[in-house]
Amino acid sequence: MSDEDPGLAAVAAVLAALEPEPDRVTDEPRGFRWWPHAHGLHVHAEPARPDGAARVVAETALLADVGGRGAEFAALARWNARESALSSLRWDGERGEVSIRASVIARAGDGGEAARLLAHAALLQAGEALRAADALAIELPGATPLGGPSRAPAEQVEAGHAYAAGAPALAAALEQGMAALAALSPAPWARSTRAAHGLDAELLPEGGRAGGSEPGARWLLRVSVRQPSPRLGAGLLTALVPPPGIEPQADRVAATAALLNEGEAREWTGCDALGGWCVHPAAGLAHVSFVPALALAPGVAGRLAWQAGTRARWVTAFLANVAAAHARGTYGNPLSD
Predict the structure, then answer these.
(1) Which residues of the chain carry a pLDDT beneath 70?
(2) Where do the structural domains in the chain lie, given as residue ranges?
(3) CB 76 within 8 A of CB 89
(4) Distance between CA 315 and CA 100 in Å, rounded?
């Protein structure tokens, strides 16, 4: 793997960080596949773009024969709202498969920040994949489990315990990170307000479509270090909430979340895909991410904040294109049962 290619350099860094047993790793084009258990975790880099940026993905296939019905979308949305940290469940409409996935944008000269984030995501994904596969096998009885031969889980599968154990010692650093984020200048938001949970900021993406995502519609970014994960302890929680009218039909909001997660996997958004779109019990449709305290290096909070603005612009344009294609009758409707 060449250090001259930022994607391949990131893949190499992730492999080194995971420290897998050699007999559990197989080489793949522009990446590798690690078998922490029966489900293989595939880490690979897409070819670098003309500007030198490359998307690097960590993904574990879980289920096949998932047709994309309302009940299936609802199950994925519930999991992503309840369990998403750095990875989230993604439905592949072309293959009818569900995987757990995370990705980052690697660039030359980024100091390895993207690779470090993906290494944390991949390490946690090993345990998350097992739990998600077991839970979804019950919720989606018609799906077919994917995976290789059964094998004893690798010790890395229990990494979540180490993140939880290390979090209390980092409480002060988390609060300092929140203070630095509140003072960010320049900032991606029109205005921000300190709140009991942390920070609320208003984003004003350009472009839009009819309804709640027209030009000038306000997106809300909520950031907190005071809402710990039950499994991973303290960390940085971000929730990007679109305008209420972006999906006017309440019975389609879970399908819209699945569509956005699939869209982020297929299109170039310029954003790290850490966490995912879900249906949050309080906020409704939202993009939620949780960075455990041990993974929150300096600069990560600002990186995610700027990417929230980019994500809002991408979603606004993406849903406008989907709506226009539906109107022309040139787009298969992924939101129907």
Answers:
(1) 1-3, 206-216, 330-337
(2) 6-328
(3) yes
(4) 21
